Amino acid sequence: MVQAPTHSDAPDTMAQARAALRDVVSSLVTLVRSVPDADCASVGTWTVADVAAHLSHAFRLDTDALAGRPVPEAKVTTAGMAEVNARLLAEDGERDPAALADRISALAHEFDDVASRSRAASVDWLQGARLPPPAVACHLLEECLVHGHDIARATGRSWPIQRHHALLAVEGGVLPLISALPPTALLNQEKAGSFRARFDLRLRGGGRTLMAFDHGSLTLGAGGTRDVDAHLSADPAALMLLFIGRQGIGKPLVGGKLAAWGRRPWKLARMLTVLSPP
């Protein structure tokens, strides 16, 4: 497997991710502190307070990973992460928005301090994956962007996602994570077993990546090949929210945030049913 080129290969990715996190966390803390009803329904069975508490757990996880401390035992699948997230939420009784905002702010400062001193080529992450430190930072950025979106949508507030932040989250976090995990990890195996397709993903403002689905596995490669079923040009924020199941494909297509063409572009709709992000 040829690993897709990503921002995590660039020497300044950590600096970019840290700067992005400082920007996003400032807005995130303000958003969480302003939550009027901690019990307001957000995503799935979670309340907005549950989402904020989960975000604090994500900061703890990624800080521990960068610091070389043990991380939870977990399989990075929908079911595996649901189990570990439920356990962490059950063990954490804090649901006061102001207290959670303070916790996230303190954890963000701790993460930034650990990240500033990180010199390892790679660190242990969940399910034995080895990630370069910038990929861990970009994963945390993705968590902040997505769950900030969840809280804002539930409480009727705005949550603009800047393109360069989303690009860092996808190219610097999501794609390296896919490459580091087993090729079966992020797929619904019942639906993926009969699916074969190759897509040329073109992130606007970024690079190109080959996504190859083959009977229950997903691997990434260098983009630019002509031997694909379809080409997908995507705004990074729209793609991130689409892949994580926060929006359907219709609105970004109509709004010009996504464009697809090629021999078999209809396979993109099937791809969305096959993906099973944690």
Automatic annotation (TrEMBL):
Every Mycothiol-dependent maleylpyruvate isomerase metal-binding domain range: 28-152
Lineage top rank: taxon: Bacteria
Single GO term (MF): metal ion binding
Protein name: Mycothiol-dependent maleylpyruvate isomerase metal-binding domain-containing protein
Organism: Actinomadura darangshiensis
